Amino acid sequence: MMFQGLMLLFPAALLSVAASQLMTFNVTDPTTGTPVQCDRCPPGTFLLARCTSTQRSRCAPCPAGSFTELWNHISKCLRCGVCSQDQVVKTACTANSDCQCQCKQGYYYMEDREECQPHSRCPTGQGVQTRGTADEDTVCQICSNGTFSDTVSAHQNCTKHQHCHAAGMYLAVRGSTWHDNVCTTCEDHKSRDGAEYLREILPTFFVHHKIPVRRLRRIVQKLPSKDGSRHAGTSGLSTSALNEQLNAWVASAAAEQIRQLPDILTKAGMNSIGERLHHKLQRIDSNLAELCASRNEVHAVFMAE
Questions:
Q1: What's the total number of domains in the chain?
Q2: Over 80: is that where the pLDDT of 190 sits?
Q3: What gap in Å lies between CA 170 and CA 266, rounded to an integer?
Q4: pLDDT confidence tier of residue 87, bands split at 50, 70 and 90
Q5: Rounded to whole angstroms, how far apart are CA atoms 188 and 182?
Q6: For residues 250 and 132, what is the distance between their CA atoms, to the nearest angstrom?
Q7: What are the cysteine partners in each disulfide bond (predicted)?
Q8: Distance between CA atoms of 209 and 262, rounded to whole angstroms?
Q9: Does residue 263 share a domain with residue 132?
Q10: At how many degrees (to 10) do helices 239-252 and 213-222 cross?
Q11: Partner residues linked to 108 by β-bridges
Q12: Which domain holds residue 111?
């Protein structure tokens, strides 16, 4: 039992020695030349004057803009850190702790690069499952059946397709993961070409298919204007600027010009995308014709009775 007691006291003694070493440091008295054990200064202070054989260590508080976090015997406090341009102060610097930084809003800390990076934006067809934080990136998810996202965003969730169930309303364009349902009435269809319904989803169509900037330039150059002329040079324009020009054209183009888009895409080297748009327009025309034809048949039977 006595042996066990000694074993328990031995580690405690070691810890006591280690603690005393952290709280003190050894120097030589400049006057007497004898070794002296001096006290260290506590966090938030620095060593103003070493101890001697007759005087203890003299410590002073860290001035504003500086700090010490540990017991020390340094002659000057450490300068407070500065957050980078993509960071904000999470905890301000104090006399006994440095400032703590975190990524500013819209950014997260990427450990591999040891820097803040912008939150990822979910593409069209995907919505935000979990918003990004200062420590985590955005988490995206593909929109489930019956929902869509037509924006590139770090905040937008998938939205439910609108229902074309109101009296006299019919589905003109079935929604997908990247665009909403487009509804119509047969009365409206009489005065509108099928291309008018296609117009509503075209801006998202071009964003969703991530068309390279060179191809976008070709497409914009081939767009017919109202007077039949072609557009001016597009050299040097960015993707966003080209999309703005394309959207402006879509908003003002006549229905017969909208119908030329599949052929324009093909001539610009975008065969598969041109074919998809052509099939989309065909489905719209077919869908509208069938819906309104069935309504007219029902109406005719009702009137005959």
A1: 2
A2: no
A3: 31
A4: very high
A5: 13
A6: 34
A7: 62-77, 80-93, 83-101, 122-140
A8: 14
A9: no
A10: 30
A11: 117
A12: 105-160
DSSP-derived pairing of the beta strands 87-91 and 100-103: antiparallel
- pTM above the 0.90 mark? no
Instruction: Give the integer Cα–Cα distance in Å for 19 and 111.
Output: 35
**Are residues 155 and 231 located together in one domain of the fold?**
no
The residue among 216, 207, 199 whose CA lies nearest residue 268 is 216
Are 191 and 271 members of one domain?
Answer: yes
Residues 149 and 221 in one domain: no
Question: Of 276, 281, 288, 234, which is closest to residue 258 (Cα–Cα)?
Answer: 281
Contacts of 138 (CB under 8 A, 6+ apart): 119, 120, 121, 122, 128, 130, 131, 132, 154
**Is residue 22 included in any domain, yes or no?**
no
The runs of H, that is alpha helices, within 82-222 are 186-190, 194-199, 202-208, 213-222
Co-location of 155 and 173 in the same domain: no
Work out the pLDDT band at 2, boundaries 50, 70, 90.
very low
Structure tokens at 288: 């509208």
Residue 5 lies in a domain: no
**Angstrom distances, CA of residue 63 to CA of 51, 89, 98, 101:** 22, 20, 13, 21
Q: Which two tokens stand for residue 133?
A: 């934080």
The answer to whether residue 37 sits within a structural domain is: no
204: its two tokens: 């998202």
46, amino acid identity = F
C-alpha–C-alpha distance, residues 20 and 22, integer Å: 5
DSSP 8-state code for residue 121: -
Residue 242 resides in a domain: yes
**What is the identity of the amino acid at 158?**
C
Q: Which two tokens stand for residue 278?
A: 């052509």
Q: Residue 138 and residue 120: Cα distance in Å, rounded? A: 6
The pair of structure tokens assigned to 55 is 């005087």
